[in-house]
Records
---
Amino acid sequence: MSTEEKGKISVETENIFPIIKKWLYSEKDIFIRELVSNASDAVTKLKKVSLSEEFDGGTDYRIDLNFDVDKRTLTIEDNGVGMSLEEIKKYINQIAFSGATDFAKKYQNSENKAEIIGHFGLGFYSAFMVSTKVTIETKSYKKNETAVLWESESGTDFTISQSKKDSRGTKISLHLDSDSGEYLDKWKLKELIKKYCDFLPVPIYVQNEKANREKPLWSEEPSKVKQEDYKDFYSYLFPFTGDSLFHIHLNVDFPFRLQGILYFPKLTHELDAAKNGIKLFCNHVFVSDNASELIPQFLTILKGTIDIPDLPLNVSRSYLQNDPLVKKISNHIIKKVADRLIEDFKKNRASYESNWNDISIFVKYGMLTDEKFYEAMKDFIIFKNSDSTYSTIAEYWEKNKEKNNNKIFYANETELGSVYMELMKSQGLEALIVDSKIDSHLIQHLETKDPDKKFQRVDSEIADQVLDKNPNQSIVNENNETESDRIKKMFTSSLPEATVEVKVESLKSVEVPAVILLPEFMRRMTEMNSMFNREDSKNLLKAHTILVNMKSPLVKAALKTFESVNPEKGKKLARTIYDLSLLSAKVMDEKDISEYTKRTTEFLQEIFSE
């Protein structure tokens, strides 16, 4: 090339560059990603060429970022394939772009303006987001090719001339504008390389300091990776988060390409389930740390990486929502997660049970929200039993179906030592322990899927097995009233709430004077409401039943007092029995407890002053 050549970019770039330079201002960091990933592509291409061709310059591949504070220049240089004059004209001057005007209009008012960068060959032009002038010095690896210098101050007009560059590769120099001095800082550049280009398969240097890790663990063959490597990689990606429970290594070539490592983190709080820790990559280049459209919501508690080479570098939210490839990948990930859990259940049940507290939240949520995940996991969801062992629904059912009268009893973990559980244990009955707010929804879902299995909370109805079916109910007074009728009359007259129903039964245990029964549907509604912090949750429990044990010595003493010379004292004793039952059922609020304390204190003073 002996003369300088001038020209205009062959699309209506005057409509595009205002978008790049102005509307994308807040996203300008991504120019580093675009230029460095382009440099990496140039090196990768040369590596492929080296398999069949010879070239000068050796194979010490690298990418260098250097800056000059005084000149306000930043350079990105690689020793890859380089470009010839014809290639400069093809790839730089003739942007692979159609419908430029429509495209510019589309993004003029878009909230996702960063989507424009990386599309239709515009990656290089992100350089103009931060520059007043951009130059390209490039020399093709092919022998006898002349080095080329390309220069532009606007992105629309350019000049091409011969360059003095004597080594293969491409060097892009950015003359930074007055608002972009932050890129004249080694630590800023290293930070951006670590964020966007940490796993590119080429060493990247900033002012001659290595800035990237280079090789991602997810690209290795799973059979060749040691457990310690997985552990170290997790610590590198997510420092200060402790160890993970276990992981899944994704490695798919057909019918789509997918690589990655998903880790199951150890949750310290249920709120951790809302955190998104999956980093999305495209050909080792970081794209986003929010893969919510790609990963089902119930799996967003997982941490790790997913690399999908066939996604566009600047993947948009709308793209993820509508691309059929994404749906296939999502279904594959769901299947792999279920397969991993099932494998652990079958091969290492003890490990599965020890991890259950940490994984149960997303397993249950997944079963509620994804039909395929439900079908896969329905036989492998486990609950802690009241005897402190774990069992699946099927295991509990088979073990207890006869003595439980084909019911599945369950209780909150706080009720393990309650009067309800003590009554059941005394008769050899077992209950599953629920320990999360989501369990009310899950139980409802399980009943819908298998109507033959009925769940009953231990405080919703006294199990038939703890009742004495043959109590002495002989008539004892002139009004044809049984002892049961008289106890009911005493409690009805002593209770403050008209919504409270009184039932009198004979329990096999004489140690329990009374228990509060809360309707199953009412308890579930209460717990579902509590998930949304509904203030009326406690009020729903005001409508309940007190079941009085007519065999209790305390109840008998209250009845004797009620029917003798001091009926008011008998009523107060009945009220105290009711209050104690409320306390045991944990349905008293602070105001109720305060009034109960005052009332009981006065009653005790009355008793001991006699």
---
Amino acid sequence: MNNRNILILASAIALSTVIFSVSSSAEESGVVNIKINTEKNRKNISPYIYGINSELMYNDVSVGSIRAGGNRYTAYNWENNFSNAGNDWKHISDTYFQQNASANEKNMYGFPAINLSRQCAVKNNAYSIMTLQLAGYVAADDDGEVLESENAPSARWDKVELVKGSDFSLEPDTTDGIVYMDEFVNYLVNTLGDSSSETGIKAYSLDNEPALWNGTHPRVHPEQTTCAEIVEKSVTMAKAVKKIDGGAEIFGPALYGFNAYTTFQGAPDWNDIQLENEEYRWFIDYYLDEMKKAEDECGTRLLDVLDVHFYTEAKGPCGERSCSHYNDKGCIEARMNSTRTLWDDTYREDSWIADSGTDLIPILPNLRKSIDKFYPGTKIAITEYNFGGDFNVCGAVAEADALGIFAENEVYCANLFAGNAPYQLAAINLYTNYDEQGNGFGDTLVSCESDNSETVGYASIDSDDQDVIKLVVMNKSFDRAHTVNISFENNNNYSYVHSYGIVPEFSQVFDFTDNNEKITVGQDVITYKMDPQTVTMLVIAKNKEAFVKNATKTEQSIADESSVNAKSNSIRKYIKIAAVSASVISLAAVSIILFIKKRFYQNKG
């Protein structure tokens, strides 16, 4: 038996143990009541909230959007594909973006954007977001470390001009020391098609975290960015993009976090700006107002999506943000609750942000308030976020909660940022491809109310089809099992439940229906006995026929069926075999499983 089959069998046996036993450490804490009303509080769900950044696009995850962004992109040169790592890694200029390029693609202009389009096609035509460079200079070579004495302007850098002012070329002059950003957009439109085409870039981001340029890229932009500078560059670049591709959406200003939201990281001109307009509660108000004024002047919307980043600052008892103390109850619960800073005005996390006494949290309602006042119609994106727990089930639970919060608060686009995040990716798959056939959460959110903040749910339907409800429910407790009673305020005629979920032992979605004895379907209520730190997709249908009808395979899943389902079928086969003997599994068998897994990963390494 090869290593892969050993791991599949070990996973199946361990999973059956999880399904058929309740952890002895779990503490029952009573009943949780969840009420669903399919006619109430309906909201359209943007598929782009199930997004990732390009670092994760080669993983087995079904997504709605992919963003090519991050610190590396600020000094990226589209003419030669060189980039600079900045303070992230010794100010190295290299060919980082050519890692996945074939020999024939090494010299292809704008390779990261071409590759982004290609990977979006692989991911069921996911929405593509490409970063444009606004800081002023980009890497001219791949000769390694750039010294402080070689700060721009120097031979190590090419100058960025946002607008060329003359005819574009599809073969840019790579010897003139200048890189034109509108020529880049024109090249992509001519190469891939415009934003309305299947392969065209759908959106452009106005660089990345400009409030930190002097910290992340001091060789390029050693001075602190001013508020006026980022507005001027945003307006100029947005006008240029819209002139070339009027349907492309503009994302900006990609603010890194709370201090950028408020004072643009203490920008030199912020205090004077706020003194001149006391209506501005934070920098975001000023930016929106200035972009709206620019639109009024030119007659074209220049900011389609307000783009911010959000990394939780919440701390547990250890005093660290986003720690890896997965056995510490306080640390786990701090992570589980940290998502509430996005929406809940009754919650205050343990962090420097909450300690500041600010009235600008929760984040999403305050962003919406600013948009409604200063630039109505602007959408919201969180193109970088991560609540941690990359290698623990708590990460899956927090991620699942965040995705539900994005839907509830009508976020347009959200993109997980991580180097490797298997549990979070499993949570995304729970929403987008829970059955490995392309079926996911519905496109319309409906009312779902819980009487316990530890066990929350998000319910949806597909358009106006109320025969099937898709409920994502999570138990955020560290050690308390909950009995969840699910009722329906406007219709109780649901008799069939199919369940999928993520358990602590494995960073993947499993089909639990054949073995799940924890779900009981009654006349007026569905009861689910839920273990701690778990997240489940319950597909609740009028009957099994309605479930089957709803679970129609997508074209992509049919095309990929032979390769994608091979793994799924093998796993389910072994799960069923293991289930028969689950009652006789002993502690010795569990020890053997752990030993097999250890040997597997040693061999793999």
---
Amino acid sequence: MYYSYEEIEKVKRLMPYLLKNEQNTRAKRIADISEEYIFYAKGINVNHILFMNKAEYCEYEKLYFPIENIYSEIFDNTTEFYYSKEDLDLIKFIRYINNTEIVKLSNSLSKEINNDYFNYCIYLSDKYIPNIKINIGEKIESILDLKKTLDLVYSNSLEDLKDPKLVDSLKERYDVSLRELKAEITKYICLWIHAYRYLKARQLMMLENPNIITFSHRYYGWSKPRQNVDQNLSIEFKTNFGYGNSSYFYLLLIYKGIQIFPFIEWVNYKYASVSNMEKYTEKYQRITKKTNKRTNKQYNVTEIYQSYWENAFNDLITACNISKKSEKFFVDTYIIKALDHLVEELEKVFELTDIEANNRYRDFNYNFTIRDLPNNYIKKIKLMHVKGSIITGALDLIGHISKLQVFIDTKIYISKIIDLNNRILPMLVETIPLHQKQLVDYDSVINSFYKELAYIWNDKGLKNYKFQKDISEEEREYFEELNEKHISISDKKNEAEQEQKHIKNLLKSIERYIINIDKYLLNKNS
């Protein structure tokens, strides 16, 4: 077959984009999905679905609906082909899949479901996750097109190569590409089976259990169906799976029309904020630190796993059974104990030491390494920053506490929070001059570094050697010594300037805490 120059060049340009999504280059490939989520996947939403039924005369309980091991033979054969190291015969494997019933089934299913892809999230907290196409025939066709492209580039490139080493290299790259196509199609088939198994199990579960209140799932994106457990309690599993750090997994309890607020989290959780806490009663996720390889800076990463459904259902069952037992028991467990714990912990925060504050709370522990300052108020400044953040931030909780007046007398809790803010206000005000003195001290240290740098550059003559190539060995040693000193002092100067910025940021926060207290007290008294 004859191919024009333009056709060959076009195919060569396509070569690097095998298995890539040209519309979204950040989208992951199915070939890159970890084997543990495919061949070794197990547990919730793989082997069983968790669910809860309405309970009339008995306690609520966590139930398990089995996910049938449909198409296990195809799954096993596909897995075997994936792990066979030498077998790269994609055509043989595709012929095998085409002779099974799942291709015809997938074609029918794609017409029934108003979507091209399964609503099946592989990683709950990752982003740019590949979708699982419902129509297997269309996926196979795309794989065959890619293989045709690969073969065309390989055969045409092979004709141009004379060096045996280059021929071997080209063959190696060709085999790597074949393995990627093999991984793509085999992992896709097994993921398709997982998604189909879950779909059929969910449909059968709903058919056999018409009184289901809620169940575990792995749906993409936003989902928050509200369900009435009884005349008093409503619940929501609010999820947003598959969106990286925007992913979330919440349980929301609404008792007699009032949301149960997670007051305890304000003092127990490092990354709590009132605006986020308004969205849930319980949260199921983990925040971990990762380091950017390029910038070496750390950033927070949200992690959510299928196993967290177990914790979520345990909390749900407990809340439902407590609600069923009595209003007094529910109010005592989810309101009174939570508020008692909140004010107790706020009192402890007020008495915190510097070490306790920095180890236990928040990410406000800026690093300060410049120790030779005339006045070193940094520990006190950081400590008041942590205390101020937590205690003044509790003012934002008062609105939520006030709503609970229908259940209990909330005045005592509100009074304690206001009292703590009145007590901490003068302490915050006292740190303002400490900030200002510390900024002046940093100015002095930074200026001294600038003077040292200028002295080395001008008076010591570093500038005379910096751009010279023809200098003696003695002069070179002198230059290297000066240059090392210059770099060391420059690093210290940059470090001091960065720390001065931290002090300014801390000062802004302290000033904001003072304003928040003054504003609240002014509004309260007006």
